[in-house]
Fold this sequence. Notes:
Layout: H1 5-14, H2 19-34, H3 39-224
Amino acid sequence: MPIDTLKASKRLRALGFSEEQAEGLTDLLRDAEAAAATKDDLDALERRFDERFNRLEERLDAQKEDTNARLNAQREHIEARFDAERTRTDGQFSQVNARFDALEQSVDERFAQVDARFDMLERSMDERFAQVDKQFAQMDQRFDTLEQSIDERFAQVDQRFAQVDQRFAQVDQRFAQVDKRFDEADEREKNRFQQLEATVKNYVTSRVMWAFGLLAVYITLLRYFGI
């Protein structure tokens, strides 16, 4: 019956052999099978393998027990350190809790003092606000009186402005009359100027004609006397 080298290699790796060792052994098995070993040789080889497997299992069991013992020792050491650390931490937490209690009591006392001061301040502010409200009421009354007085003064001013407007209307009427009289005077002066201009023009024309007549007589005399 041929040897299943693949199965043998897997079994060797499962027992702890490295991949190279398992392949080497399977190669030996393959070579032995190729050399047409006898059944006795195969039995001897199988016995050797069984011995090797048994020794390997014993080594693995010993390593397993040693590993478990070391793990147990490490666990006990860690648990002891954890217990010691927990005890130390509990002591520190107790101190912190005591300090927090003292701090809380101090804060409560400070808050009580602050509340008392706020109460005093609130009462003082209420009194001040009452005084301010009273002053505002007085100021409102004074503003009402002042507003009434201002309204009366504005009414008087409006009346005065109405009188002034009336006076301005009268002045405008007088100015209109004056403008009319100035227009009439301008018209009269214009007429008089036109009359004067016509008179001057007639006078100048007559004098020029007289001068021309005199000049003609003079020229005639000059010609007569042969000058």
